[in-house]
Specification:
The protein has a domain of 226 residues. The chain has a 14-stranded antiparallel beta barrel. It has 3 helices and 14 strands. The longest helix has 18 residues. A hairpin with a 4-residue loop joins strand 3 and strand 4. Helices cover 8% and strands 51% of the residues. It has 340 residues and is mainly β.
Length: 340
């Protein structure tokens, strides 16, 4: 009976993704996936010239087969010496998601460009645009459907009677965003941004258009964060993220804090706690050495799904490396971000 329940659950999830308002890939550590949240984040790293990042998420391991989400990304600054108190940021990201038994997979790549302009001595305004290519695949032979239930078990030799026309769906995806940062002092910093994803509402369906012309809903995202140095040994980073796609809302709020272990910021301990509304409590821990940051979090489910997964939701790992090019040590544009 448990096996039957899992098969039905898998079928429902795949059908929902194939012919309803599909939801985007997401990470609990959204602040470590800047290009996924807002294209205006490309090159938005005031004290550095470049960033490289990798993320991995394993979700619902004890409810059927786990959902695995992976990404690699990077961005850099350009033309820091050609604009008065401004620069161009470019970035790219690759994302891969495998859902339940490997039957549904998503692969996407995005190229992003942004422009950042200082306003006075303490403010920075940024605007960005992104273009992506998305490919989703489904292996129909691995699925079972209600028409194959013979009263005792699912008989895969029976016809599915489902109107699948394709095993792959591909489309171009457009996105844009704005960011504003205020550098109050060397001990306080604020940042807020808004973005719109899937501006072109691309078609995404494994069915013929005459059966389904499902469109990916626009996703609207807003975030606010800050950094505050406390007693020269802590940097506290409160933040909140809100996203709406179709009828689905996601809100994640909390904070993380860096503790200076070395006296000069080269070694830092990271501790954080977040809450995803009506879904999960998310503790986080990490370590930063020089300009490389390692963090891991665990999503403890507190929603109704906790009765199925025993509150075991997901774990997630992020690695972010920031750096400065040797030739840019004398560049004019440098913002007073909060650092040890």
């Amino acid at each position: 009976m448990m096996r039957t329940g899992k098969i039905v659950c898998l079928w429902l999830i795949v059908f929902w993704a194939a012919d309803t308002h599909a939801q985007d890939l997401h990470f609990s550590q959204y602040f470590h996936t800047p290009l996924l949240i807002n294209p205006a984040n490309a090159g938005f790293n005031p004290d550095y010239d470049f960033r490289l990042g990798a993320n991995y998420r394993d979700q619902w391991a004890n409810v059927g087969n786990p959902y695995k989400t992976m990404s690699i990304w990077g961005d850099t600054k350009l033309f820091t010496d050609r604009f008065e108190n401004g620069w161009v940021g470019v970035g790219g990201s690759l994302l891969k998601d495998v859902a339940g038994s490997g039957s549904l997979s998503s692969t996407s790549g995005y190229a992003t460009v942004a422009y950042h302009q200082m306003i006075g001595y303490n403010s920075l305004l940024s605007g960005g645009f992104g273009l992506g290519f998305v490919s989703k695949r489904i292996d129909i032979t691995k699925l079972t459907f209600d028409n194959q239930w013979n009263g005792k078990f699912f008989d895969i030799t029976l016809p599915t009677n489902e109107p699948f026309a394709y095993s792959q769906s591909t489309y171009l995806d457009l996105q844009m965003g704005l960011n504003y940062a205020y550098f109050a002092s060397e001990n306080a910093y604020f940042n807020a941004g808004v973005s719109i994803m899937h501006i072109n509402t691309p078609r995404e369906s494994f069915f013929d258009p005459s059966v389904s012309d499902n469109r990916v809903s626009r996703r609207y995202t807003a975030f606010v964060n800050g950094s505050f140095k406390v007693q020269d040994i802590w940097i506290v980073n409160p933040n909140i993220y809100v996203s709406k796609m179709g009828n689905a809302w996601e809100t994640v709020a909390g904070l993380n804090a860096n503790r200076d272990l070395s006296g000069d910021g080269t070694s830092q301990f990271i501790l954080g706690l977040y809450y995803r509304s009506n879904d999960a409590l998310i503790p986080m821990v990490g370590y930063q050495v020089n300009d490389t940051k390692f963090t891991i979090n665990y999503d403890a489910t507190i929603s109704g799904l906790s009765t199925l997964n025993g509150t075991r939701g997901a774990y997630e790992i992020s690695i972010v490396k920031s750096g400065v090019f040797p030739s840019s040590s004398s560049r004019a544009v440098r913002c007073p971000t909060v650092r040890f």
